[in-house]
Amino acid sequence: TGGVPRVPAPVTSVLSLAVTSEQIEHLHRRFKQLSQDQLTIRKENFDSIPDLEFNPIRGKIVHAFFDKRNLRQESDGLADEINFEDFLTIMSYFRPIEMNMDEEQLDRFRKEKLKFLFHMYDSDHDGKITLQEYRNVVEELLSGNPHLEKESARSIADGAMMEAASICVGQMGPDQVYEGITFEDFLKMWQGIDIETKMHVRFLNVDTIAHCY
Amino acid sequence: GQRSSESHKNSSQSFAIVSFKWDHVKEPYIIALWILVASLAKIVFHLSHKVTRVVPESALLIVLGVFLGGIVLAADHIASFSLTPTVFFFYLLPPIVLDAGYFMPNRLFFGNLGSILLYAVIGTIWNAATTGLSLYGVYLTGIMGKLNSGLLDFLLFGSLIAAVDPVAVLAVFEEVHVNEVLFIIVFGESLLNDAVTVVLYNVFDSFVGIGAENVTGIECVKGIVSFFVVSLGGTLVGIFFAFLLSLVSRFTKHVRIIEPGFVFVISYLSYLTAEMLSLSAILAITFCGICCQKYVKANISEQSSTTVRYTMKMLASGAETIIFMFLGISAVDPKIWKWNTAFILLTLVFISVYRVIGVIIQTWILNRYRTVQLEIIDQVVMSYGGLRGAVAFALVALLDGNKVKDRNLFVSTTIIVVFFTVIFQGLTIKPLVQWLKVKKTEHRDPKLNEKLHGRAFDHILSAIEDISGQIGHHYLRDKWSNFDRKFLRKILMRRSAQKSRDQILNVFHELNLKDAISYVAEGERRGSLAFIRSPSTDNMVNVDFSTPLPSTMESSVSYLLREKAGPVCLDMQALEQRRKSIRDTEDTLAHHTLQQYLYKPRQEHKHLYSRHEIMHSEDDKQDKEIFHRTMRKRLESFKSTKLGINHSKKLNKIHKRDRGQKRRNSSVIPNGNIPSENPVQDFTLKEKDLEFSESEENNDYETLHLGKGVDFLANVTKQNFTDTPAGIDNPVFSADDDQSVYMKFSPWLSSEDTVVPSQRARVQIPYSPDNFRRLTPIRLSNKSTDSFLLADGPEERPRSFLPESTHM
């Protein structure tokens, strides 16, 4: 079907100010391609994307698509399959900022993106990025480089964790314990850096033609 | 001339003891003198901070040039010096452009390449066309009076005055510090518009020569085709020479002294080759610099890299100084001056107005496609920063007065325009930028987290692009970096350099280095590194050593912990906190590993200072003993698995010798102070440890093999060696400490291409990042043989630090 997909109402609320109908159509086509004309996608469907194979953090990214926290569902854990609406929801995390956003919207936008990132790192869903989880991420990230050994990755992760600790908590008293990076700490880490300009994909760009369905 | 012939005549009568051979040295003498004058002028300018903060150096130099030119004119009544196009294009411009290309921030450049190309190509064409046509239009109305130029002449003039000048942009923006995106767009534009300028200039120059009547459609088409040929050809020439340069730099290991020379010569050749083939020489040398930087920087030694950097900067800066000064001098030449108020004024007006219009239109188009939008403020800076400079002047000076009848008028106008933009716009751009509150560059210390997350982003966005089926920015970048890793690196980079080139690692090493240096600085400040042990600092350190620690493993590692310097680094405390929070063994282990890597530098430095300054108590010595044993053990085991038995036997011998030595020679042991609040407890532990290690040592090579660091750690954990907790955590320590030991006895063991820094290297402070990099995970090197013992990469690197080294 080539016509404009009938996007259910909840989606528009999620994607308000975001994606044009063209782009939705394009994504819909892509969705159908991935799902092989089914209504839902499973994890296995992502295997059909050839370029994704070489991506070091493939696992986490695919995982993120099924993470219920990202799908804005109240429950926790992993969904088995997602439909187009969910697909769009995830994609919407990557839309770029629009020129006419006000402070509050920008802030919310930023928090959304950071939350997505946070969920990716926090694999056990406990709201904290512990050292081990951080290490996993770094190891995966650096696994693309064949010359780096696991030890180096670990030490880098450790170093990064310490840096995070010093940013987030600064001077710690003798009895303080640093459990892991919470979301607030995570936000603090990202304070100076404008993630909005970094974390987006081009095609989800441009017009704020608020589509009315 | 005369004098020499006179002396010659005289010589027939007598021998002239001394003679004044001015003509003999005239040429090089004058050149040297001018360079000296220009450099002295720079010194004088910078004496007054107030002036240099307000007035850009380029403006000052021009004024000085005018002044000097006036003097020369008054003295000689002729303008003897001027900026000739030949000198400019062959000697003064290449260093500047090469400097720009070699230090170009590639990622930023290619990330904004689309915008840059748009401004460079379309923008320049727009500027040239509108300026030329407008001037012609006004001319037709007769305001300008009588000129000998036709449409083509005006277009020719338009094309040479339209181009934004890289020298001027660099000179002015350098002092302004706008944010990097803005800078790279304006600067990139100024570099890449050379192709357009060259083509337009040549086309119109030849059209003027041919005569307006003979210009046919074919000629125009040829002009358009020549644009593509010139630009792409120039780029390809640059890339070819970059490839050549990288390849050559791969093999220059044994000719370190002339290594820097290759960079300059080959780049210069790229410039000349392009010029010879009438392609865009600026593009060639720019891309030569851009493409070769990564590989050359990886291949050449640290010293060569520094040499290249400084020489390039010196040449570029020197050339820039001379250019501006001569711009001033060349202005003082009564022969070339032809004043036409209307023409000059209108030129100024047109170039400014059309630039603004051009920028606005193009930005509007670009913003539809750009992810980071260019705002009004950016556009203002871009318009205002479109400075004309010496390139325009050189091009106009090249004009043939016979073909272009109004050459002198053009020259005068160009001079005025250049002066105006450089002096006036240069003066006012800084306050303008401040007034508009343009976003400035943020200078931040490299944060490991930023790098990591940046990398994560790259991958995430790449993945999203893949998933959504779009070919985007990240997809392309990904593909390129895969291609680079698979093919280019293997060809162009030295094997030793290939391994250790990871951005994240670099930042990590830098941070380690910084920590180390601050540690040492603190030590220096306090006079010695014994400060660690003072009671006051113990209090500041957030570890409570008074109570016995739960696990044996922890307790022996605590000796390590105590070597922190509380006030020096925040990380230490964060580290401490984590230590307390960690409950399971594995985390403790990891934690200690972390400490090793961060402590490593401190250990290193401590070793150097502690040789002579720290009084070691008994327990200290024994702690060190433990460390040494475990480290040595690991080293030997590693070596035994990789090298076979012979070597390990040798090590064994040395080892035994060492052990004896060690007992006697406490000052050698590097592990420094371990303040002991509980001497008794510590002693017992250590005694046990000592005994353990002695008996176990020889049996443990196999089990302690270092196939993979992780496995090793796991092994040791399981076997629960009480004497090796330090050993677990000190893969790198062992190497370094053993370094000190081994280097003393067996310097002949060093060989090529291995990882650990040599004794000599470690003696140097501050360490260069490259050296330092080698201090951390040795496992970076796949070259297994002797990796623990021997220096990473070219051994000349450490050697070269030493003045008495002869092996360069």
TrEMBL record, chain A:
GO terms for biological process: cell differentiation. It is found in: Cell projection, Lamellipodium; Cell projection, Ruffle membrane; Cytoplasm; Membrane. PROSITE patterns: EF_HAND_1, EF_HAND_2. SMART domains: EFh. InterPro entries: CHP3, EF-hand-dom_pair, EF_Hand_1_Ca_BS, EF_hand_dom. PANTHER family: CALCINEURIN B HOMOLOGOUS PROTEIN 3. This is Calcineurin B homologous protein 3. It comes from Erithacus rubecula (European robin). The lineage of its organism: Eukaryota, Metazoa, Chordata, Craniata, Vertebrata.
From TrEMBL, chain B:
Gene3D superfamilies: 6.10.140.1330. InterPro entries: Cation/H_exchanger_CPA1 (IPR018422), Cation/H_exchanger_TM (IPR006153), Na/H_exchanger_3/5 (IPR018410), NaH_exchanger (IPR004709). It is found in: Apical cell membrane; Early endosome membrane; Recycling endosome membrane. Residues 666-680 have a biased composition (Polar residues). One of its GO terms (cellular component) is brush border membrane. One of its GO terms (biological process) is regulation of intracellular pH. This is Sodium/hydrogen exchanger. It comes from Erithacus rubecula (European robin).
